[in-house]
Amino acid sequence: MLKNLLSKEECAECRICCSFDSYDLWETPVITRSKASQILQDYKPEQEFVKQGGHFLLKMEKEPDADLYYCSLLDHSKGCIMGNEKPFDCRIWPFRIMSLDGTNVITLSPVCPIVKTRPLDKIMKVCSEISGEIFEEAKKHPEYVKPYLKGYPIIAVERDA
Question: What are the DSSP E strand ranges found in the chain?
Fold first, then answer.
């Protein structure tokens, strides 16, 4: 989805999106029932989930000597074990879908070191190419939409049809 912005090689080297401090666990990917079934059946039968309303979050273990949690689907030598079947949040990262005063917006995570090196016009072009798909997914799965967090630049706003 983001191949025009980030290469697989760049993402594979970085993996910042696959790790979470205790204060940013809210950014862990939302897992739908069907995605949870797929994970258990095709990728990781022993995976545990944390139920949150009608969806799930991946249960992750804290690293022993740091305030750090790695995604349980991350193979540290190969990357995400799900490949192109990643959860929605992971497929669109560093873009985030958030709600600001009841309006869905697409924001850009301020922590992606690679996107910070890209020209703004390129970021905006990629966002405009995929924003329709992101907003449609948000309509189908409102659990993907997180509350707006100050400091996340808004780069697209959903317009009423």
Answer: 19-20, 30-31, 49-52, 55-58, 69-70, 74-75, 79-80, 95-100, 103-108, 146-147, 154-157
